[in-house]
Design a protein that fits this description.
This protein has four helices and five strands. The protein is α+β, with helices and mostly antiparallel strands. It has a single domain, classed as Muramoyl-pentapeptide Carboxypeptidase, domain 2, CATH 3.30.1380. A five-stranded mixed sheet has the order 1-2-4-3-5. The longest helix has 14 residues. Bound molecules: zinc ion (2 copies). One zinc ion binds next to strand 2.
Amino acid sequence: MGNISKDFNRSEFACTGKDCCGGAAPMHPDLVTALQHLRDLAGVPLKVNSGFRCIKHNKEVGGKPDSYHPLGMAADVAVPPRMSAVQLVALAEQVPQFANGGIGIYSTWIHVDVRSGKARWRI
Ligand SMILES: [Zn+2]
Ligand SMILES: [Zn+2]
């Protein structure tokens, strides 16, 4: 049980930077709703590798200045065991907020965000 949605806790989205915002996690409600939808479609727990990143931490990890992480509108989600990144992305495409937002595919994780406007990339 989570305290921010059915399965997610706010702490899972906390900034992991040192000496910055003190682990803030001001998440956009649309991101949380969409991520819960994705989790329901996946049917297995999803691990958030990176949720909120304050401006300082975003810079430290080489995030783009226009990243949606500092806005609380993005999450990097680890691909669960027995699933491929392509399969997880296919589920994300079924979530309206992600389908109309940003989806990036990496080898062991995917990026999803709830920007207004479709963006897709693949590393
Ligand atoms: Zn921070
Ligand atoms: Zn990301």
